[in-house]
Input
Amino acid sequence: MTPARLAAFDLDGTLLRSGTVCEAIARGLGRLDRMRELERLSSTQIAEVKAAREEMASWYAASTVPELRSYLDSMELAPRVREGLGLLKDHGFKIAIVSITWEFAVERFADRLGADYFVGTRLSPDGVITHFLPADKPEWLKKRATNLGIAMDDVVAVGDSGGDTEMLLAVGHPYWVGT
Output
């Protein structure tokens, strides 16, 4: 039996416990109340989610990426995340953070936690958004696993919300940490 060698984690609610990335940035920009309204959208409301991202991108336009990332510094990690990811890496796992939130934020946490791979919604310097949605998670993960020569039955995925369901159903070792 081949052991799982790739472990994929959602970010908001899975690796992070103190609200969402979007809320942390909105708090820093004085837009928290509006962001909480937008957070009520379901990840299945694709048109509405895309419109919400457009609105958020308009808030970010006057800031640099380092400024936006600085609002993430106070976010609370889930208990013992660093130790858990370290143990996985010590045992030969590659770590991926697979999130629908902003990729510049996912990258920040990937660097902070020593993840090997990451993906999220891209926001280019000229404001163009390349959306990454829940349905994209299993496809991205499958490509990554294939590139590493790992069967999807040998992949671990951890998530906490309905937006992670497709990813969890696509792997051999799904773990749910939500309510």
User: Anything to note?
Assistant: Strands lie at 6-9, 94-102, 117-123, 129-130, 155-159, 173-176. The mean pLDDT is 95. The chain is about 45% helix and 15% strand. The radius of gyration is 16 Å.
